[in-house]
Amino acid sequence: MPPDSPALTGQQRKWLRGQAHPLKPIVQVGEAGLSPSVISAVQAALDRHELIKVRLQQPSDKRGTAQEIADQSSAVLCGLVGHTVILYRAHPETPKLDIPGE
Fold first, then answer.
1. Dihedral sign from CA coordinates of 7, 40, 50, 59
2. What is the DSSP string of 35-95?
3. pLDDT over 70 for what percent of the chain?
4. Does 1 have pLDDT greater than 60?
5. Which residues, 6 or more positions from 32, have their beta carbon under 8 angstroms from its beta carbon?
6. Torsions phi, psi of 76, nearest 5?
7. Which helix H or strand E contains 19, and what residues bound it?
8. Residue 7: what pLDDT?
9. Full set of structural domains in the chain with CATH
10. How far is residue 3's CA from residue 10's CA, in Å, rounded to a whole number?
11. In what helix (H) or strand (E) does residue 13 lie, and over which residues does it extend?
């Protein structure tokens, strides 16, 4: 985990997964895999929404790809459900989500 992303407890990650349940994937990673444009789209989505879903299309290593997306975007990997990655990164100035226990 990058040093600037918050360390979350298992309970906090579980709460975030619950908050992400009704969300639709904002970014999709195609067959070409991760590219700088995909990472910048993830970072822009995190800046706007804090909690997002990313859909992976036919990943060879979905856990590795999910962790790489989280690492490159300085986000916390909250969960991986099927081929959908749940990422969280608090807005640096005005956080929208009030995570229990913070």
1. negative
2. -HHHHHHHHHHHHHHSEEEEEESS-SSHHHHHHHHHHHTT-EEEEEETTEEEEE---SSS-
3. 93
4. no
5. none
6. -100, 130
7. helix 10-20
8. 80
9. 23-88 (3.30.110.60)
10. 18
11. helix 10-20
First CA to last CA distance, the chain: 18
91 is written with which tokens? Answer: 């807005």
What is the pTM (predicted TM-score) of this model?
A: 0.88
| 51-56 and 27-29 beta bridge pairing | parallel
Residue 95 confidence (pLDDT) above 50: yes
CA–chain centroid gap for 72, Å, is 11
Q: Is 29 helix (H, G, I), strand (E, B) or coil?
A: strand
From residue 46, alpha-carbon distances to 17, 22, 73, 76 in Å are 15, 16, 9, 11
| Residue found by looking up tokens 């909690």 in the block | 51
Q: How far apart are CA 11 and CA 19, in angstroms?
A: 13
